[in-house]
Design a protein that fits this description.
Hydantoin permease; about 0% strand; globular; disordered N terminus
């Protein structure tokens, strides 16, 4: 294996990697998707199963991706090229690059909504919204306004490009060293406030007290899908981030730390939302609109509610940004490594193309009706892209990465990469068993379930 021919940069150390990789994992999947998914699937029972899947499926696949990245110091395509002469496996890396691009195109639309809500909370646009109907109208007006829908997605992509073009230590690491501590501080303030509301105890009980009668096949599959999506697995993001980690750093500790912080933030999001919901008589099964439709009415029912609304939507925007940074970096690293592009050119070009692909998703939530058009743009591109890239492609990528590490590259080689610093991976034998036999089979069951039932997560 020859070394990469370009100066790719590296994390300055373990802390920089942990913050950046945790930032990749911590996003709308934790703070937007986890609470409403838990709410739809019965609360505590879902949370328990989710935690089990993070430990038994998420962490092993995460470590497998990191091992590939650090060994090769390349993007997902180049990594597989370096480890095998087969023409098939680099295509798996290519699938990861396409998946990162596809997810970024629809993710930036939802991320743009967080900027819209942050702006409204700062300017008083959410003041007085005390009824669900009025709150739903605010949300509908935002997502169906064609100008706002496109501008907000474009603004979020612009922020993402500006960070990624700055490089690894000077751009991504510098940004996440500011954004991640800020995110945690805001969350801690909001958790304390939510848990001290009258009646909050019912929400805490809902989140942590399992009702096993709620467990169904769909609940189990939803928990598995949430674990994969939340940890940014199956698309090469962790291969890419692992490729910037020097061999002297303790990768097993860093990888487990990423999963721990990702899961902690998801639980903290639940501790913000469910106590507040139960304190104000809200419905925990509010679905995807929980954050954008239900929460504004809750904030307006709380003392100093506007302050907490600003804090929450700032938190949501920060979490989304740390994820979009990693999504763009997956694609940019490919063009820097494999095509010899300058990072600046790659960031602007890929970001611009992604914006063009994001426009149909931005317009598909009702804006085409405002424009008086139909046809192709009347399709729900946002949901379609989520299904293709966030369900099928992520699941397939995670299966193939598990198979590659377990059966093609081999557990001993992967372990040598993970333990290159001299730090041992605890329960290495269990990790090898899980990555060879359990992870690919369980994720395959999830993929079959999605295809057979048409249930998407």
């Amino acid at each position: 294996m020859s070394a990469p021919s370009v100066d790719r940069g590296q994390w300055s150390g373990k802390l920089g990697f942990i913050l950046a990789a945790a930032g990749s994992a911590i996003g709308l999947g934790n703070i937007w998707r986890f609470p409403y998914t838990a709410g739809e699937n019965g609360g505590g029972a879902f949370v328990l199963i989710y935690l089990g899947f993070v430990a038994l499926i998420g962490v092993p696949v995460l470590l497998a991706e990191l091992a590939i990245g650090r060994k090769t110091q390349r993007n997902p395509v180049g990594a597989f090229k370096a480890l095998t002469e087969s023409k098939f496996w680099p295509m798996v890396g290519g699938l990861g690059v396409l998946t990162g691009f596809g997810i970024l195109a629809f993710y930036s639309v939802v991320a743009g909504w967080t900027l819209g809500y942050l702006y409204m909370s700062l300017t008083g646009g959410l003041a007085g919204v005390t009824e669900a109907g009025a709150s739903a109208a605010v949300f509908t007006n935002l997502v169906t306004d064609p100008v706002w829908a496109i501008v907000l997605a474009g603004a979020f992509l612009l922020l993402t490009i500006l960070v990624v073009r700055g490089g690894i230590s000077g751009g991504i690491e510098r940004a996440t060293k500011i954004l991640m501590p800020l995110l945690f501080v805001i969350m801690l303030i909001l958790v304390i406030r939510a848990m001290t509301l009258p009646g909050a105890g019912a929400g805490i009980s809902y989140l942590f007290k399992p009702d096993f009668s709620k467990i169904t096949t769909t609940v189990v599959m939803s928990a598995l899908g949430q674990a994969l999506f939340s940890l940014s697995l199956g698309m090469g993001a962790m291969i890419t981030y692992g490729s910037y980690l020097p061999e002297k750093e303790n990768m097993p500790f860093a990888g487990v730390s990423v999963a721990f912080f990702d899961t902690l933030i998801a639980i903290m999001a639940g501790l913000i939302i469910f106590p507040a919901l139960f304190a104000t008589g809200g419905d925990p099964s509010g679905g995807p609109g929980l954050v954008f439709v239900v929460l504004p009415t809750i904030f307006n029912a709380m003392p100093a509610g506007n302050f907490f609304a600003v804090a929450f939507y700032a938190l949501l925007a920060i979490a989304a940004l740390t994820s979009t940074i990693s999504l763009l970096e997956v694609v940019v690293s490919y063009f820097v490594d494999e095509r010899g592009w300058r990072r600046d050119k790659a960031a602007w070009t890929i970001g611009g193309l992604c914006f063009l692909l994001a426009v149909p998703s931005a317009l598909s939530q009702g804006a085409v009706a405002e424009l008086g058009t139909g046809g192709l743009f009347s399709w729900d591109f946002l949901t379609l892209n989520n299904n293709i890239w966030g369900n099928y492609s992520l699941s397939l990528g995670a299966i193939l990465i598990s198979v590659f590490v377990g059966w093609k590259w081999g557990i001993p080689s992967a372990l040598a990469s993970l333990e290159a610093s001299g730090d041992r991976l605890p329960a290495a034998g269990l990790w090898g068993f899980l990555i060879r036999y359990v992870c690919p089979v369980v994720i395959l069951i999830l993929l079959i379930f999605i295809v057979a039932t048409g249930t998407y997560f």
